[in-house]
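Support reply, case 0932

Customer input (verbatim):
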Amino acid sequence: MRGYKVFAGTANPEFAKRVAKHLSLPLSAAEIKTFSDGEISVQISESVRGKDVFIIQSTCAPANKNLMELLILTDALRRSSASTITAVMPYFGYARQDRKAAPRVPITAKLVANMIQTAGVDRVVTIDLHAGQIQGFFDIPVDNLYGSIIFNDYVKAKNLKNPIIASPDIGGVARARSFAKLLGVDMVIVDKRREKANESEVMNIIGDVSGKDVILVDDMIDTAGTIVKAAEVLKKKGATSVMACCTHPVLSGPAYERIANGDLDELVVSDTIPLKENVDKIKVLSVAPVFSEVIRRVYHNESVNGLFI
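Our regenerated output:
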């Protein structure tokens, strides 16, 4: 076979190293520099002619820089005669703006999809897209993996007495229902009203949580306002404990302080985005083994869906 190589941007180098270790491959060499005015310069340091290439790069903060790195790496590899280029994006940024929710606003998820395709990416691999329909914004294959594959075993190992799954909002019901089905438990919904971006007010709990060990399930946590307020209300309604499982720890602004001082007993996240601070309540599970197996399967033309059956 042609052989494959794995490159990494600077968004999450430790994650890329973990993926490469599971693949028993060294990360391929690329020199990434930033000029004093902020422009990014890339030089591929080894031959990729005829190779299947995988670029590991989340578009987390600083999102613009990391997105441009991905695009420039792709262009450099395409011009170096790589056979195929797969963008492995553990966190797909700009996904929250996936529709026209108000007049005269952009659909940035579609814009980013266009940019990635135009740069020359042949396939995208990501996990827990903020909205599943973003796959349809691409005209190339998109593998949207499920974070529940790592959270499921962790939650089961805790042997909670009366577990119940909770969706932190109406939009996350499908995700929470799927997780509840995996664990064989019931589900409740936190009904909230969002007054403006990054601020929320928890209003009511749909369902009974009295005496329950509640597991909040979400794809991402940004400022942690919703999840911390949800934990507060759930405990007021009689929940014994409240933990949260979240794939993408964006954790911006006052998030770390809110988690440390709030009613949330534990926050379990993946390593798609590197943490900026260490908080005792935050537990990190690695999805690097999942991504390494997906890379292997994509290269060998094997089923990716078989991982989740």
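We compared this against your earlier run and they match. Two observations from our side: The chain has two domains: 4-146+288-308, 148-285. The two ends are 28 Å apart (CA to CA). Please reopen the case if you see a mismatch on your end.
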